[in-house]
Amino acid sequence: MKVKKFKKPIDKNKEQENVQELLFKKMPIGCILWDEKFRAKLWNPAAEKIFGYSAKEALGKHPYDIIVPKSAQKQVTTIWRRLLRGDTSANLINENNTKKGNKIICSWTNTPIKKEKNNVIGVLSMVKNISEEQKNKNALIESERRLAEVIDFLPDATFVLNKEGKVIAWNRAVEKMTKTKAKKVLGKGDYTHAMPFYGRRRPVLADLILQPELLQKIIQNKKYPFIKKEKDTLVTEILLKNVGGKDIFVWAKAAPLYNAAGKVSGVVESVRDITDKKKLEKELHERANRLEELTAKDEAILWSLGESLRVFDITGKILKVNRAFEKLTGWTMEEVLGKKVEEILPQEDERGKKISLGARNVFKVLSGKVGQIEISGFYIRKDKTKFPMSGVITPVYLKNEIIGAIEVFRDITKEKELDKAKSEFVSLASHQLRTPLSIIKWTLNSLDKQDEFFQKNQEKIKDVYESNEHLIALVNNLLNITRIESGKIIVNKKKVGLLNLVKEACKNCQKQAQNRKQKLKFIFEGKIDHVFVDPILFSEAFCNVLGNAFNYGLDKSTVTVKVKRINGDYLISVHNFGPVIGEQEKKKIFTKFYRGPASPARNFSGSGLGLFFTKATVEANGGKIWFESIKNKGTTFYFTVPIK
Amino acid sequence: MKKILIVEDEEIMLKALVEKFSSEGFEVVKAIDGEEGLKKALHEKPDIILLDILLPKMDGMAVLKKLREDAWGKYAKVILLTNVSDAETVATGAEFGTGEGEVYEYLVKTDWTLDEVVQKVKNRLKS
């Protein structure tokens, strides 16, 4: 500058110009002077900085050639024309290009420069690069938009207020709850958002976050005790009348939204319809009250019940036992409470084998796979002694769901003893009966067949002999039954040819067939091989069924024996034509001492033990037995024999 | 001639058996209780013994046990006669039948006719 001073003397005008130039140069915002032909006449350093073009490069250039992109030219042209026509100023924000080809957002303030008679000789443009500001603003809008989007999908009815209390988000769920569309409330303030909930304009929970003084007042005067403050959020449960057409009980929570500077920039409030939950709670409460009353009564009853009782929860833990349980097992209520089923009363089966946890009936019941289940076997007391028991386990339901199980059982030692005594008596009596029976048999055997008396009374002697044989059979059956009942039935399984076994057994029965001119027919399907059974028991069982078929079959009718292989078993069926087995009989037919009412065979007198014994032996051999009886089609007894 | 010892306390039964086996050509020795049966068995050394289980003074099982302790008795042929067909009784019997000694058979009286008993005895003597 000093150099300049000495070079050129400065006049007043010049000085003024210099000040202007200095100002122009030091201006922090871009200053561009356009001539009337819209060519750059002045281009200050700030403009250089904004656009990257130096004054030298820019001067004399039309803005369209350097900084105005094609997309903005139409708009710029319009403004240019308006300014030439006499508009005093025009502001605009548009996109511009820099020398490097970057796009920037600029804010322009344009003022026409006039000489006398409104003759516009140029336009002065002040320009500011506002890209950063714009970006921030866009980012804010974007984040608000995203927030609204996220909120839109929230399952809870949710809305957002900005700092001014205007609605900036109103999601689908709140639309559904209040039957008020977002567009009716969005952007509106003055408690518009309260209308759908309260029917009038008033502060809601969210507004209290924005108005701390109001919140303070409310908390102090305790008018709204149901509003709870949790850190910076507010929570409440309240009954709202006529929201979207109905009264609902809601849970609501309002939380402030913070901006990057940590200042509250808005508030979000979620409203959840808890009407059903409240109803359920109320119902549960009432039920609990009622239960308490009932329980007192039940408890007294259960406690004094004669049978032992144990209540389990769903995990198999003991919840309750009664006095009979305590007395029988030696365990007290305190000792067993909360204990797992396997810890108290280990269970053994009839043979003294421990029953493993998985097989325990309680779990079967709790799993819901079976309904009520009958249990038997032995329980081991606290003092390690055991007792036979019998009982049931029943699931406990609440609203169709199993929540536990009740076991009721009793000590059946006395019954067992009685039953054993009975069995022993029958056994003993039967053995005693055998002695005279064998004497009669052998004495009759020893009669001299050449003797005149014998010759004369042959028929009568034969009758006596046969009656005796019948008695012997009866005693044998009785003994068999006591053996079945006392578990003494001995099964000697052997590998035997099924075909021979069946044929041999049939031979023994055929005498009966001949008496009444009945026929026996065999059908063997496929290859009949070996089975693994007790041959004696099998023959007895089979003969019982076949004997019945003949005895109950009609004169001259045919009895058909069919053997075929089904999966792992042989299925043996015995069919006859005879009276139908009635519905009443069906249930009793396999029970002991039951005899069918209609026997066409004249001299037939059964013991009523045949099928009872047969069922037991078939099952002891691992098979099953059942029958069908259809009018005009006859009766078929089926039983299976396992191959292995 | 084969010698048979029949130990049976029921007189009528004994009579029927004695008559039958006599007529079948056996030399028959009889005893009416366990003690007598054991004594006669060791003294007479019969070819075969028909031994009832339920006997006064000493039951059939005890007789069998004593018999198996004797050098001769250990291998004596015995058929038990019984009215008991329960597992336990038979199992006890099985103890005396195993080991070195002669095995025994048992017959439930009511299941067999006299002819069948004779046949059984004859078969046993052949073995």
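qc> The longest strand of chain A covers residues 103-115.
qc> done
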